[in-house]
Amino acid sequence: MGQGCIWCTRQSRGLLRNIGILTVPIVIAGLAGFAGPAVAQTASSTEGAILGTVVDSSGASIPGVKVTASGPAAMGTPSTTTDQNGFYRLPALPPGDYKLAFEQSGFGTVTREGIHISLGFTATVNTEMKPGAVAENITISADAPVIDTQSNNVSTTLDAQAMAILPGSRDFWSVVAQVPAVALGRMDVGGSNALTQQPYTAYGLTSGNRGEVEGIMVNEGTGGGGSDFYYTDYGSMAEVSVNAVGNTAQMPMPGIYTQFLAKSGGNQYHGDLYFDYENDTLEATNIDSRQIATGIAGSKVLSVYDLNRLSKFRDFNADTGGYIIKDKLWWYGAYRYTVTDQRYPTLLDDVQHTWAPVYTGKVNYNLTEKHRFIGYYQHENKSQPDYLGAIFIGGGRASPALMSKDTVWSSVFPLFVWKAEYDWIISPALLFEIRTGQYHSSWQRTGKSQDPRVEDLGNNFVAGGVYAITQTRSRPQVNGSLSYTKSGWLGTHNFKFGGEYMQDLLTIPFGPFPNSCNCVSILNNGAPLDVYLYQGANSLCLKTLSRKIVWA
User: Fold this and answer.
1) 3-state secondary structure of 193
2) With 80 as the cut, is the pLDDT of residue 544 above it?
């Protein structure tokens, strides 16, 4: 499916002295298919910004003040100067903690510390400077977090430190579980949901969600029902932003808009190491005689205490980053390896074993302070020799089929995500950004047993091999925007114009059964009922192409 989209938003914010902040959002036109107000996102979708005004002790604006940002997240040494109204803006700042220095001849230098920038966050930092003859240099430590007065998105943002202490499986679904109004269909206990997609609802909606990594859409399907994300390297991410409501025109439908941004290198070498381990001897059980008395029982293979039990969970994470050329070229790399062994009452003779290595790389390059390039690549491959999603072909069953390890699929799910981005700071008020990239996955499922396939509707037992199927999705895409911020006597005005194009190609070739008959026998409590005969391998290619222009 190909889609083109053009969107434009305008926002006006007035700052009135002695009164406070007057918010005046202006929507030029409604968005087709968009629920809720279209409010301008004043910063890049993968970065943030700092703006404000500088005045003297009388309240008069000070033009020509040099404003310099520094911190571990800074790519180089971003700086600017205030205009004739004392207004300044530092766009395209990677998420992280910053320190601002305000310098002007005849005034004491003012330093503001502890300014945290999040994804798409614009921090307003207003400053008062005093004549140098009256006051010496002043350092102000932020005793309260700065707020974003330029946007009214309802967002939940988690940085790397916050994500490190979250319980559960260390994945996308453990992140959205922290968001108000989001309800997951199944609770994660000690990693029991690891490497498993989870359905969820947000404000009662189950579809229309959009997940992005480094500004690239990565939904496995069309979104919703838990298929909004893949099994990424949770530890390689610097920050995650989840917008549950009040999204901008960049989000073309109601639902959750989730953005993952990877860590970057820096002027100091850094790294982290993480490992956890769990097995069934470390787990408690909530099954006791009272539950057993109500009728809870085990299966022919598993005891009542081992039904759906996590037999093993192991997660290893390592990352490092640094510089090739200080203040100019930085690199970052990460590796994650996750293993789970899960017992299921429907898999009669084996534990479902799953593992997923993830490799991540990122490069930042400043051609100049105004021209910046970012490259990103991540590869993941989930392997599951006993995948329980094998289709029970015979219709009419009322409960899950009972299967052995030879009757289910052997599944591998390799995928990669890449992007190339260019940011041009045309002026402190004008920012141009464009990125291109791709999400590509190939979900391959093959049968294992050479025996003919037999499915019994009466007792739900299944024997024999299953057919092969591969689902390949390729989604090349490009998006960009031009944002403009203007400060005047009526306040600060933000304009953003941009668009997106992507093509979604899905191919699903149907392979033969591993047995020679290429057939399925359907029984009812041992009595023959139906026979399904297949001609052989064939291919189904789903490809639609459409064009849609949306104005706002």
Assistant:
1) coil
2) no
- Is the Cβ–Cβ distance between 392 and 337 less than 8 Å? no
Distance of CA 334 to the CA centre of its chain: 17
* Tokens linked to 472: 């390949």
291-293-296-298 Cα dihedral, nearest 10 degrees: 110
Give the separation between CA 345 and CA 532, rounded to whole angstroms. Answer: 27
- State how far the Cα of 76 lies from the Cα of 533, in Å rounded to an integer: 65
- State how far Cα 180 lies from the chain centre: 17
The identity of residue 538, as a single letter, is N
Measured CA to CA, the distance from residue 522 to residue 401 in angstroms comes to 13
Pairing of strands 48-55, 127-128: parallel
Q: Residue 136 in contact with residue 109, Cβ under 8 Å?
A: no
Residue type, 478: V
Q: What's the rounded Cα separation, in Å, for the pair 531 and 401?
A: 18
Q: Which residues pair with 177 in a beta bridge?
A: none
H or E stretch covering 438? strand 430-446
Give CA–CA dist 476/419, Å, rounded. Answer: 10
Kindly report, residue by residue over 413-461, the tens digit of the pLDDT: 999 999 999 999 998 889 999 999 999 999 999 989 889 889 988 888 8
Closest CA to 142 of 176, 97, 108, 177: 97
pTM of the model: 0.82
Tokens of 238: 């610097």
User: Which run of H or E residues covers position 49?
Assistant: strand 48-55
Q: Within 13 Å, how many C-alpha atoms sit on residue 150's CB side?
A: 31
276-297 burial, b for 16+ CB within 10 Å, e for fewer? Answer: eebeeeeeeeebeeeeeeeeee
Cα separation, 377 vs 379, in Å, equals: 7
